[in-house]
Amino acid sequence: HEAGDTAFEAEMYNNLGNDYRLKWDLIKSLQCYNESLKYKNLMVVGTKIDVLLNAAILLTQSNRFKEAEEYLFEAVFLADQNQSYADLRDIKKELGRMYKRKGDDEKSEYYYLQSDELDDQIKAEIKKVSDFLTNSKMEILRYNQHLLEKGRVEVEERKLKRWLVTASLLSMALGMFIYKVGSKIRKSYKQHKQEERLKNKVISEVSRL
């Protein structure tokens, strides 16, 4: 087999083991898990932990405590190396259950307590992540609101600029109109004054005669 084929077979046997376990066929389920573990060096860490834990659960139910303990401690090592705290919590909980079934209450309580502590840590981490995502969402909403407000302001600024340009053009046009009207009035006034002076001059000349 090539590496890809054996990795696929490992996953396939693990899934078959899960199916048989759901049917309460513990013997076939354990056989499948053991077949899967033949390829454990080719599995991704998460799958390897799952298979070890699943097999250990069945071994505990079969009172094969020594084998279950070996599988669980190997799973603890892998989960710890991989910093997979959710898996570590589940494995230590299963260790507590296994020792309880075995009759070792002291070890059972020890691992149950460790599992509970990990559960609290995981919940705290989940809350941190949840709070972070909530805060991030609020920041994004605030930023989007800022962009909308900025867009509205920019629209109003553009309207104001257009109004100022229009007002400036109207003012210029009005100024030109007033200048032209004023020029005509001044011209008409000068002409009127000239005519008045000419009229007065004529009257003065006529009076001398």
Radius of gyration: 47 Å
* % residues in beta strands: under 5%
The residue fraction in helices comes out at: over 70%
Which structural category fits the helices and strands? mainly alpha
Number of separate helices: 6
* N-to-C order of helices and strands: HHHHHH
Number of strands: 0
Q: Calculate the mean pLDDT score and round it.
A: 81
Could you list the spans in which at least 5 consecutive residues all have pLDDT below 50? none
How far is the N terminus from the C terminus? 145 Å
Shape annotation: rod-shaped
Describe the structure.
With 209 residues, the protein is mainly α. The protein has six helices and no strands. It has helices at 3-22, 26-37, 45-61, 65-81, 85-102, 105-208.
Tags for this model:
single chain; 209 residues; mainly alpha; 6 helices; 90% helix
Short description:
This protein is mainly alpha-helical. The chain has helices spanning 3-22, 26-37, 45-61, 65-81, 85-102, 105-208.
What's the arrangement of secondary structure elements?
Blueprint: H1 3-22, H2 26-37, H3 45-61, H4 65-81, H5 85-102, H6 105-208
Helix pairs in contact: 1-2, 1-3, 2-3, 3-4, 3-5, 4-5, 5-6
